[in-house]
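Recap for those who missed Tuesday's class. We walked through two folding examples back to back. For each one, the amino acid string is listed first and its predicted structure tokens come directly after. Nothing is annotated here on purpose, so try labeling regions yourself before you check the end of the notes.
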Amino acid sequence: MDIQTIISLDRTKCAVQCNSKKRILEIISRTAAEQNSSIEEDEVLNSLLSREKMGSTGIGNGIALPHGRLPGLEKVIAIVVTSEPPIDFDAIDNKPVDIFFALLVPEEQTDGHLQTLAMVASKLNDKETVKAIRNATSSDDILTALA
């Protein structure tokens, strides 16, 4: 799977003002619901919060990969948000997070979910990509960095 198939400009937000883990997950959930009529904002938020209760999806280096499964979703979608300032997200390195790459996957898709997470983590492991995302001043810049 190519990362370009799961990201889009209308599900990308740059330099969002935010100050808490719950608030950033609410922003992600609202963005997903606004761009897909088959998705309910509360359902997305509950899925993301349930996953966070099992352990933070903050993978370190200021990056988090919140993710959840949704019934009725037909394909994997991503919501990419950067925050200003970085927020406490209980990341594994205890550093604040400013890059959030959220994945929503069809409920029945288990193997595909793990492969997609691995692909995104690999992309975000590239220092130049991360630097470009952090230097982004628009959603277009974020998409260009991920291309």
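Example two. Treat it independently of the first, because the proteins are unrelated.
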Amino acid sequence: MSPTTQGPPSPLSRLREAALDSVRPFRASGPIRRLYVAISIDALGLGMYLAFSALYLTQAVGLSTPDTGLVLSISGVASLVGLMPLGAVADRIGARRALISFFAYRAVAFAAILLARDFVTALAAVAAAGLISRATGPVTQALVLEMTDTEQERVSALAATRALRNAGYALGALPAAAAAAVGTPAAYRAVLCGTVLAFAVTAWLARRLPDTPVARGARERKARSVVRDRRFVALTAISGAMSMHAFVLSIGLPLWLVGQTGAPHWLASLLLLVNTVLAVVLQVRMSQGSERPPTARRMLVKAGVVLAAVCLLVPLSGRIPGWAAAVLLAALVVVLTVGELWHTSGSWGLAVEGTPDDQRAGYLAFFNLGFTVATIVGPMAMGFLLELGGWGWAVLGGWFLALALVSRLLPVNTPARETAAA
């Protein structure tokens, strides 16, 4: 071998390259960088609220636990109601104009939460905020597609936005944790003031983005119903069903660790942190190639297989010593994160390829319905399966394996971003 010949990169060098990929968005220039900054600030503000919303309603507003659950549930229903209509509005007026309005509305709605003092005012404010909570995501994604030119740029930019959102959510949890540590209503309201400010800044930043033209078809004709696009509906259903891995991570593994293994309980929080860090660092790198539909489909298939393997191995942690269970669960979280990233990269690659130019926001809003429905069904399903013990994990493994097999049937020869006129 020639002395100048280099061997394969080491795992450390690969991790370094992945870390560089994760910060590359901030090296971008011009409008796309401003969009990345706006997305980061929005995620930071939302992360503050999501990390302590239940505590805020009980400790600062003074609601009972049942009333708090009811208020948050109604907010979730409101988000479902608003998702598709607001996506259609964005297609009509343009993603940038819609985002300015949505972010400004969000700032006002969260200011109303700040002023809530009883059940009625809290319900009205939280429901109003929930109405638009799911719509900003697909509209932001539609704007990313409008501001990029090639399939590779689009998929890479969407992966960057997911990484930035994960980082923002994680950082937003820090001031929320500080407020919980202080425990006074004033501390909670101070953090929520930060959320309102973040949304107001995001609305201002959105005003500085380029006003991309509305697709001609969005104004000239009635939009084709996305539910008639069988391929896109199938992709949405498969992606939403595979999102069950989010609840394996946030509900299944922590409860199993605490109740069925000898691993230290503090490990549950550490495992969530490991997942967040890996998702931020690896998201952009693992999305590479997903702009090609066959590659994106293979990612979905591999995600299902990997997630199935994780679920089938979890029960083993309950039959080994505590230290070994800790090592096994940590390894499984790393593997689960790889499956999660293959799932998001593959599904979004196919979604971008199948989204018509003149209905981007509407299609992406529909695609987001898959995960939205999963957030309603997933926690209940996870709780039921945990009651079955090892058999419940076997059912989950079969679920993901079946999704991997179904994913192989997704067609990948549909013309990219077919217009509604087709």
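Answers for example two:
The chain has 16 helices and no strands.
Residues 228-407 form a domain with the Growth Hormone; Chain: A; fold (CATH 1.20.1250.20).
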